[in-house]
């Protein structure tokens, strides 16, 4: 049973002290339900992606059941670190694909700023192997990715300036996205002169601590037909991979094995040539929690050969008009990274791009009718690659 | 957070509730009165030899008696053989530096330390190890020889460190 996204909504990302958890979630849910033209009674399953810990409410699905007056609906909360949002989509997608559900509400929500920054740094450092990496070594989250960044620099000659260019690009597009946390361009020098967070990463190499929510309505092919829904995109395929908890148990630090595996699975299922996938898709949202992560993603997704991802940055091949536009919503870097909402927000972006609803200056050319989302939890601890398309999958 | 708490305490008297205005947005916030302190109690029952080894100056891994696979960090079970018949194996404490980072923004629980270097080395025995790197991170490069030394942390207990080998 093919699965479509028939509605999408997203809040402004950033500091959202003006709303509490259910109010923030409802902003996205309401938009998603209105664009899908569905009511509460139409929804038979609700999946909430919420990593939590830093926010006060734990039982978010029940909270939203109550706040949004849902009825006769199954629900659950899903967690896969920073890939939580895509894990939520996974659950809804497979529920419909298997015939268990017809219409599913996917909500991704995170209110990270309910805790002070030092507490968030403390909690997010635990998205690895706690005992052997954090308890005694204090390996922070930026540190996990920095381990990869320095390995990449040593092997392929990338520089801190190369990484900074990724931030410049993503801020360039974030400036054009009214939902982004940072709606301002940055200069290369500004990024290069910022203080270090975890060498080689400086402030502008890192995604921020963000509040936000995003929601999509998934529906079965049957429902789409029954309701005569015209405005929709389809989930063409999804690949999911897992990595070791300990970074020291990995063979390579210049790629994320779980992500390249997830990509391969997703490409094969969608009938995309894994040697030149960029020829089949119009753009991609990749998980740029840190600048170097975006460069490594280019290679894991085979937009470039191993060691040549940095070349795409230097040649500006991931701007609109290049080989493949990447993160033209600002990415996690400028749009913001509310952990549980990020993956769902990527689906919202695929929806906007494929239906040509993106804001001025950040709409890609829709030629192939396909968009890719790459969502990584932890440092490749969980990887999701999802391919969305305008045409119903074969 | 301290400022918010103080404002909330004042506001309980003046306003009637533990509230404070968020400085940046001007939005009214309720300052949670319930504080949560987390400290976990983690079992090391099945790897206690590892810690005894550190006390004797040894770095120990577990080795499956059946298939010979080495496990570091040490683990109780061999998933390949579905067996838990392990022996302790003393690693040679020498290897090659693979990658590193310097943690500048530290978690509050590490605030007593200056920026510290975390590195990963591949030991000659075949396993990798993550540990603090002793010395100037600017003077090392991936591929260079390192050794593992056991030293005392500031808190007074033993921990292994990666130390560059001269020359
Ligand atoms: Zn074995």
TrEMBL record, chain A:
<dbReference type="Pfam" id="PF00108">
    <property type="entry name" value="Thiolase_N"/>
</dbReference>
<dbReference type="InterPro" id="IPR020616">
    <property type="entry name" value="Thiolase_N"/>
</dbReference>
<protein>
    <submittedName>
        <fullName>Thiolase domain-containing protein</fullName>
    </submittedName>
</protein>
<dbReference type="InterPro" id="IPR016039">
    <property type="entry name" value="Thiolase-like"/>
</dbReference>
<dbReference type="Pfam" id="PF22691">
    <property type="entry name" value="Thiolase_C_1"/>
</dbReference>
<dbReference type="InterPro" id="IPR055140">
    <property type="entry name" value="Thiolase_C_2"/>
</dbReference>
<dbReference type="InterPro" id="IPR002155">
    <property type="entry name" value="Thiolase"/>
</dbReference>
<feature type="domain" description="Thiolase N-terminal">
    <location>
        <begin position="3"/>
        <end position="186"/>
    </location>
</feature>
<keyword id="KW-0414">Isoprene biosynthesis</keyword>
<feature type="domain" description="Thiolase C-terminal">
    <location>
        <begin position="241"/>
        <end position="389"/>
    </location>
</feature>
From TrEMBL, chain B:
<feature type="domain" description="ChsH2 rubredoxin-like zinc ribbon">
    <location>
        <begin position="51"/>
        <end position="86"/>
    </location>
</feature>
<dbReference type="Pfam" id="PF12172">
    <property type="entry name" value="zf-ChsH2"/>
</dbReference>
<dbReference type="InterPro" id="IPR052513">
    <property type="entry name" value="Thioester_dehydratase-like"/>
</dbReference>
<dbReference type="InterPro" id="IPR012340">
    <property type="entry name" value="NA-bd_OB-fold"/>
</dbReference>
<feature type="domain" description="ChsH2 C-terminal OB-fold">
    <location>
        <begin position="88"/>
        <end position="149"/>
    </location>
</feature>
<dbReference type="InterPro" id="IPR002878">
    <property type="entry name" value="ChsH2_C"/>
</dbReference>
<dbReference type="InterPro" id="IPR022002">
    <property type="entry name" value="ChsH2_Znr"/>
</dbReference>
<dbReference type="Pfam" id="PF01796">
    <property type="entry name" value="OB_ChsH2_C"/>
</dbReference>
<protein>
    <submittedName>
        <fullName>Zn-ribbon domain-containing OB-fold protein</fullName>
    </submittedName>
</protein>
